[in-house]
Design goal:
Pfam families: RgpF (PF05045)
InterPro entries: RgpF
Strand content: 5-15%
Organism: Cypionkella sinensis
Number of domains: 2
Order of helices and strands: HEEHEHEHEEHEEEHHHEHHHHHEHH
CATH class of the largest domain: Alpha Beta
Structural class: alpha/beta
Number of helices: 15
Protein name: Rhamnan synthesis F family protein
Largest sheet: 9 strands, mixed
């Protein structure tokens, strides 16, 4: 119900933000040089910089990315000094527009500064990354030939026109970065501090917009390519997967429990596969359940304090603690 008001007031709010952002922002030069492969790493840590975020910055550099920090919260002098030593620039801004507000201000700053980029990756600290030492997502980002490349492509069969690159991470290629279309999209983006608006009209529409303009896209993982993962799971792991789905989707719990009860029948694995491939199963579980994401080398874990994710973190720490980066394991074990 709020969306019409947001749409009508959006242009004025955006103009007001742009008029005030120089006064309300603080830019600090970093000690490192800017290279052709840039990562815009967005932070919102009003209680102080997390050790895992420092390690993430170092990891980006080790993989060949120049780090540009955008903070949606004021930084302490100590944290600012730490981040400036890990990047070529630190931009502190008012927290307007959620992550896409930060992406917009950061991207426009990069474009206006004339930074020459072959690749730009945007990622925020709503996830721990990398959770695994041997992750290969950034290698795929650097090797990608498409105009947009993301971690996860949402491919819900009933909403094929709304397929979008989820906000774990999205990279833009040189052709798109150099185009007028790229700058125009970010300048005209309507921002709001309404979370649902940001998801639907920024995150989803970014992919939809550039796909309609003819730009190519791809992702490291897609919901409809997860069937091969099921074949790698043991029967016990499949039962754990179903139990997690039952806990998160209570309305479907009786159906799922009935399926679990038929374990041992000749058609059990085929029945489970059919259920997971149906619309009844939340495909996102495959990207969150430790047994599945371990097989996929999926190196992200969400920090959201929603009950959905609070259920997952203890399982992650229990089942994948031996693979998880120590700093990340320490933080997620005490997060809730």
């Amino acid at each position: 119900m709020r969306f019409p008001f947001i749409a009508l007031s959006g242009p004025l709010r955006r103009k007001w933000h742009d008029l005030r952002k120089n006064r309300n922002s603080k830019y600090t030069n970093g000690t490192l040089a800017a290279g052709p492969n840039v990562v815009l790493y967005l932070l919102y840590q009003p209680k102080g910089l997390l050790a895992s975020s420092v390690e993430t910055c170092r990891y980006f550099a080790a993989k060949g990315f120049s780090v540009f920090i955008v903070s949606n919260a004021p930084l302490s002098d100590a944290d600012r000094n730490t981040l400036s030593g890990l990047s070529f620039g630190v931009l502190e801004r008012e927290n307007f527009g959620y992550d896409f507000g930060g992406y917009r201000d950061g991207i426009l700053h990069l474009l206006e500064s004339g930074i020459q980029m072959d690749k730009l990756l945007i990622m925020n600290d709503s996830v721990w990354f990398p959770t695994f030492d041997d992750e290969d997502f950034l290698d795929h980002v650097l090797a990608a030939k498409t105009d947009l490349y993301g971690a996860v492509l949402s491919q819900r069969k009933q909403h094929m026109a709304q397929r979008h690159l989820q906000s774990y991470a999205v990279a833009f290629g040189k052709k798109l970065l150099a185009s007028k279309d790229f700058a125009v999209f970010w300048r005209h983006l309507l921002l709001s501090s309404n979370r649902e608006w940001t998801i639907r009209n920024c995150e989803v529409q970014m992919t939809v917009h550039f796909r309609k303009l003819g730009y190519s896209l791809d992702a490291r993982w897609g919901f409809e390519s997860l069937g091969s993962v099921l074949d790698q799971l043991s029967d016990d792991e499949l039962k754990d997967l179903l139990r997690l789905e039952a806990e998160l989707e209570r309305k479907r719990a009786p159906t799922i429990e009935a399926l679990i009860a038929t374990h041992g029948s000749p058609t059990w694995r085929a029945d489970v596969t059919a259920f997971v491939d149906s619309r009844k199963f939340r495909k996102q579980i495959m990207l969150l359940h430790p047994a599945a994401l371990s097989r996929m080398n999926f190196p992200f874990m969400k920090k959201s304090r929603e009950p959905f994710y609070s259920v997952l973190r203890p399982l992650y720490a229990k089942w994948l603690g031996n693979k998880c980066a120590p700093t990340v394991l320490q933080e997620l074990s005490h997060w809730d």
